[in-house]
Amino acid sequence: MKFTLSDEQRQFAQALRDALRQSTSWDTLLALGVHEVESVPDLVVAFLELGRAAVPGPVVESFAVLREPSSTLAWPPHVPYIVDDADHVYAIVHDTRYRAILEDARSSVDPARQLHEYRLGEAVGPIDGQAFDRGVLACSAQLVGLGRALLARTRDYALQRKQFGKAIGSFQAVKHHLADVHVALELAEPLVFGAAVTMTASDVSAAKIAAGTAAYQAMRTALQVHGAIGYTAEFELSRWLLKVRALVTAWGTESFHRERLMAALCG
């Protein structure tokens, strides 16, 4: 499948990228109309940029799943805790949306991602049939965007950091690691866009597997190339590293999506 972005999609992506360089606030997202995006391919365009900028907050839950600004949810077992806080808080149980009441906070590997236990309130009504897969695809697009940001930052660092009188980016072993990440991301992105067009369970799960694998590879490579400084919370790279670690198992683990893909292929 050949997927080429329209002029409008490219302009939207560029506008998001430019704005998010200045601010990753919720007001910025609302001003750019992310909450009004209807088509799933356009959502993927937006979430690639949200991932690239490591935007905090319940963006998947609010903009992709519920399509309600300032809302969040839990969807056990794949999203077992309420993600962050919002004006409207829900939990999805057996495809029914319930109001949820926040209880104890839980720690997350990503300090910008707050988690909460909850108890169920009153039932609101059914959730639409594509909501879960929209969440999976938005998360997948975020992971690809995060991976691309990590690759770009790691490439720049490798060209600046010198060892033995040379930039470490000139060493073949470093080049190979960065090239492998690039290939993985180039494989994952069209799978995410393709799944956004078909919206089949098998394509959505394949996209999540590929996106998670590529982003995790980008995370490991970034950490290895940066060395000890990459471990420090004070270094800005940690925003992207920790978000990948948190999202790679969100909206379904790799095992879940492999099982779902196999069931679709063999069923």
From TrEMBL:
- List GO molecular-function terms, semicolon-separated: acyl-CoA dehydrogenase activity
User: Does the keyword field hold Phosphoprotein?
Assistant: no
> InterPro entries recorded for this chain?
AcylCo_DH-like_C, AcylCo_DH/oxidase_C
Write out the entry's keywords from A to Z. Answer: FAD, Flavoprotein, Oxidoreductase
Q: Does the keyword Oxidoreductase apply?
A: yes
| Taxonomy, superkingdom | Bacteria
- Any idea what this protein is called? Acyl-CoA dehydrogenase/oxidase C-terminal domain-containing protein
Q: Identify the residues that the record assigns to the Acyl-CoA dehydrogenase/oxidase C-terminal domain, covering every copy.
A: 131-265
